[in-house]
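User: Last request for today: this protein with protoporphyrin IX containing FE, please.
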Amino acid sequence: MKPNSLLTATLVAALAVAVTPSAAAQSAPAIPGYTMGQKTLAKAPYTLANLESLKRTLLFTDEDIRYLRMSKTILADQTEAILDVWYGFVASTPELVVYFKNNKTGAPDSAYLGAVRKRFGQWIADTADANYDQAWLDYQYEIGLRHTVAKKNKTDKADSMPLVNFRYLSAMTIPVTTTLKPFLAKKGASAADVEKMHAAWVKSVLMQTILWSYPYVQKGQF
Ligand code: HEM
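Assistant: Here's the final one, the structure of the complex with protoporphyrin IX containing FE:
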């Protein structure tokens, strides 16, 4: 390899590292509106100790963390295909697609859907990372707020429904994780490992939707 092409290859590799999800979580957001780890975020009203108690109730153990992390490389190059399936489900479910409609036209707002989709892709990587630190916890609170009247539409300046109704939040755990399973099985993992990765995803997504429900619950009753 000529010195010039070596330099180019090194630069390309450095740039690739610069846009990996974990780097994105720590530096300026490469994804518009993705603010994990940023100082501007409010501190979550629940603690890491609360999270540990919730994990125990969900039978969520270190084994689940291992299986979530195993899923990361399996899912990494399937992100767009997974998002196609999830977005297809929302688009074909009238009760859900209304939350992305433009108030003026009444039709799904493609700019809004597209902006949220980028952060949803990052969320797949973050869920598989299973790094439960304060920055992650604070971002859970933020994601919850972004589904409610407090913050929905604000990140993308969308003119859409003012909130996602609470009843759909945890329910969505089922379509999200059921449709994920075939993707977990696509890269040659054993059937037993696929089952365990799937179970870990079900627990993690349910756990997150429970954390996101905080702003919907009456003060002092979460
Ligand atoms: C398992 C349940 C769910 C998961 C995993 C999920 C995941 C996400 C993620 C990762 C984001 C982007 C967060 C960010 O800004 O970084 C988001 C935003 C959003 N989700 Fe959900 N969601 C769930 C339930 C729902 C349901 C039931 C609806 C109803 C259609 C919905 C509609 C939306 C909308 C409209 C936004 C954009 C909010 C905004 O304006 O910022 N979500 N969701």
